[in-house]
Amino acid sequence: MSWLGRKIGVGIVGASANRGWASVAHIPAIHALRAFEIRGVSTTRLESASATADRLGVDLAFDTHQALVSRPEIDLVVVAVKVPAHREIVADSLAAGKMVFCEWPLGRNLAEAEELAGLAREKQLKTVIGLQGGLHPPIRFLRDIIHQGAIGLPLSTSIRAHPTEDMWVGRYDPPFEFMAQTDNGATLLSIAVGQALEPLAQVLGEFSSLSAVIANQRGDGIRLRDGLTLPKNAPDEIAIAGHLRGGIVASLHYSAGLPSGPPMVWEIQGTEGSLRIEGPSGYIHLGDLAITCRRGQAPAQRLTVPASYAKDDLGLGAGAAGVARLYAQFASDLQSGTSIAPDFQTALSRHRALDAISRASETGLRQDVMSNINIRTD
């Protein structure tokens, strides 16, 4: 199907009028892009769906996702709900012949990601996964200058990050209480580390093998609605060390809580110099990144990301701008036949790495990421 000159009809599952990621990021992003048009919404209550539809000026409002995905006006289904619901909604959307934009993570675990990626391949439908870090202007700039030899041959890299939100340290508002349990698929590992794996892969490459330690050092959590204890097994400390493809030595340490310095520091060492990247939050894919480069014995120099890398940000806030880049690249892919926007196959690669990290921690054995086998070191 040719999309040239046609608007892509979007249906959003989880589009609350008052709160949530769809309201903060997806809706402003879609409104800023001429290639898309919101045509319908669904939530778990018809009252909230109708309120959102009225605010957006659209006609279709439903209290089930099944009713939304069956409509011929909808070309692309956006899944912006809690992770445990992703599998059913994505599967139903693909079965209905719809393209899908699913927020990250794709599923609660590797098995669900494999199932959904396989269904998308079987149906030959275009998909997008909410891993916007690879399109973040500072990340694209980093990738380019490293490929151009700014620090020679990359040798090693390390990321130290402190996501500071309440849920990571075990303090849960009602909408986030489900995140206390690892089986629900929305943890510091799956979300914060999972998001970091995408820019890391774009700049330096994917993990080929790794070891890891995952720990719940803080114990049970607290329900903020009443101050009672909430059983918690989700991790708050994650340490990973291994090799990227091509032999680069890499380490990541994600620690929930307030840092004594910058919330995120990423260092890259090369044969002819080094790079230091500092971020205002514990997430590589959000906000302005301060990039410093040092070559040889020369003093360190602060680098400015050229304006051309952010020419398509459309005046949006950081969250909406990142999502808009995904939509814009997806529209470009549809028109040109390319596959640059991260899709469900990309998601599957990231889920495989997360699964290897979990297995490495559980077994104490180094893992081969792609072949899913233990590597004995004795």
Task: Walk me through the structure.
The structure is a single chain. The protein is built from 9 helices and 19 strands. The chain is α/β, with parallel strands linked by helices and 378 residues long. The chain folds into 2 domains: 8-131 and 320-342, NAD(P)-binding Rossmann-like Domain (Rossmann fold, 3-Layer(aba) Sandwich); 133-309 and 351-361, Dihydrodipicolinate Reductase, domain 2. The strands form 3 sheets. It has a 10-stranded mixed beta sheet with strand order 17-16-15-14-7-13-12-9-18-19. Strands 3-2-1-4-5-6 form a 6-stranded parallel beta sheet, sandwiched between helices. A 3-stranded mixed beta sheet has the order 8-10-11, with no helix packed on it. A hairpin with a 4-residue loop joins strand 18 and strand 19. Helix 1 crosses helix 8 (318-336), helix 4 (86-95) runs parallel beside helix 5 and helix 5 runs antiparallel to helix 9. The chain is globular and about 65 Å long. It starts with 7 loop residues before the first strand and ends with a strand. The model has no long low-confidence stretch (mean pLDDT 94).
